[in-house]
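Most newcomers find our protein records easier to grasp once they have seen one. A learned vocabulary of local backbone shapes supplies the integers on the structure line. An example says more than a description, so a record of this kind follows:
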Amino acid sequence: MNSHLFTLLSRRFARPTARVSHLLLFLLLPLSALAQWQAQSILVKPGWSAVYLHVDASYDSLDSLVGSDANNPISELWLWQRPAGTEQFVTSPQSPIGGSQWVVWGRLGSEVSGSLGTLVPNAAYLVYSMATTNYTWNVKGKPVAPDYSWTTSGLNFLGLPTPPANLPEFDTFLSLAPNLVSVAQIYHYQGGPLGSGNPSQLFAYHTTPVTRGEAFWISSGTLFNKYFGPVKVVFPDMAGAKFGDTAGQ
């Protein structure tokens, strides 16, 4: 606060120290509340798309967040769950099939029955859209730190934390992990029906952007990978940074 503004406030209030501090606290509170939420915009193509959620939207049910919105064309959401046993890991992208490593949500009246109730963060989903054009799905949630488990026993279904704008290409984004680039097999979904060409293996690393919110199947063979991006974020608690009068640095 500059000296001129402080002088004006001091003249206005009879008890400047207490009341000015209360005013400043009142002005700062809305900023703190807004910072707790973030809207992630995800491009959903007609037919099948693979998306990755970077925010925690588990505060409400899918019936409410998606099913109650008549303008939302998403009719099915399939959440990939990593199998517990290594002998169950897949070596090629799976189709969404009930009773496999997928749990599903279906809009009322769709052909699938629901075993998925809410959207969890740091998770990849297969999404089916009934629209004939691209749809921007805005998901409101609490931002979370990136967290994933990598297996060398098969494919990993995940998204990569890139900025919403000025997207890097795959060769640039993975340049800090040359060992991964040399052995990685990456598959992505084109939209439309599932088949032999959807998902398809990605070869054009130099011209394909790493789109935030898109999920990919990635295999590294026997190479264990810890690379998730050029910046590493480490929290003592994966729920995020917590601030208070008793927290340490």
